[in-house]
Amino acid sequence: MLKSVTFVGFYKLFIKPLKGNMKAIIPVAGAGTKLRPHSYTQPKALIPLAGKTVLSIIVDQLREAGITEFIFIVGYLGDKIRDYVQAKYPDLKVQYVQQTDRQGVGHAIKITREAVNNDEVIVVLGDTICEYNVADVVNSPHSMLGVKKVDDPREFGVAEMGDDGYIEHVVEKPQIPKSNMALVGIYKIKESEQLFQCLESNYLQGLRTHGEYSLTDALECMLQQGIRFKPFKVDSWFDCGRKETLLESNATLLKKFGAMLPASYPFENTVIIPPVSIGEGCDIKNSIIGPNVTIGENTRINYSIIRRSIIGSYSNLFDIVLEDSIIGSDTGLKGETRTLNIGDNTNIDLG
């Protein structure tokens, strides 16, 4: 049983009864190419982060806000998503929609039409972790889009605001942005039927942006039809799509969640420098762990120093100094100081 040494409230929720029927759509079919080699064997939504996973943080936020029905769009390694959700959330009402041909987020949402069945939806991209008042968004009488001011919006969908406080236009990855308010990947949509009509229309017209069917283009279609969207600003936005930003997010979230240590703590001749998160069943000896380290369950570490890193489950590290590294599960590693990015099921001797 993990012991929480400290816990700083992450969700910022004021729990209210959910109005009407709303379903959460979480696309997790992406191949996670920017996180390879880890995403070859593990969906990026299941990579450990501050003692949790990206997916569990998203689901827990939505559940605490009153969402009980979830639609997961799966594809690459979808069986691992199913197994994880079934094991961790056995009482959740879940539907899975298979996206065999990845053609963008717009296409992914389009194929959930039958599962949604005209209900209101909140779409949260499977690599999007934000701090915001989820209950207020879920219970709002408006359709809403999450936004955050960024320095360079060209890599994001961008929202252009009107004088009345509503969103006038949305554009996917514009070369010359007219706004620095990026869409963070959270979309609360009341008019789901109009959304699917726009998605279907764009698909039939072959309307692609940067080679993909974009959800942003469908939202712009809805805006042109007179549907209004209110923006809501997120307090923090954690990027979990690349190694460097994943490590930064891990460090920030560790500070927010607090240290999580297993029942076997303290470890033999080992110094823990918080914040860290260590899974159950770990055997750690003669080592220095931390700060900003997440370690999965049943991992063995001996004569090692680990800083600012994420270590998977069932790994074996001996006589190694690691910093700013991501080590996959079922990995054996021994040797000397390195900065590494190693996938699952690997054995390396750096001696």
Number of helices: 8
Unreliable residue stretches: 1-17, 31-41
Tertiary shape: elongated
In spatial order, strands of the major sheet run: 6-5-2-7-12-9-13
Overall pLDDT metric: 85
- Tell me the number of strands: 29
Radius of gyration: 21 Å
Class from helix and strand fractions: alpha/beta
Helix % is 10-25%
Biggest sheet layout: 7 strands, mixed
What gap, in angstroms, lies between the N and C termini? 36 Å
How much of the polypeptide forms β-strand, as a percent range? 25-35%
Description:
With 351 residues, the chain is of the alpha/beta class. The chain is 22% helix and 31% strand. The chain is built from eight helices and 29 strands. The protein has helices at residues 54-64, 78-88, 105-110, 113-116, 134-138, 192-205, 215-224, 243-257; strands spanning 3-4, 22-27, 48-49, 52-53, 69-74, 93-98, 120-124, 128-131, 143-149, 157-161, 167-172, 181-189, 229-233, 236-239, 260-261, 271-272, 276-278, 283-285, 288-289, 293-295, 300-302, 305-307, 309-311, 316-318, 321-323, 326-327, 332-334, 341-342, 347-349. It is elongated. The two termini are 36 Å apart. Residues 1-17 and 31-41 have low confidence and may be disordered.
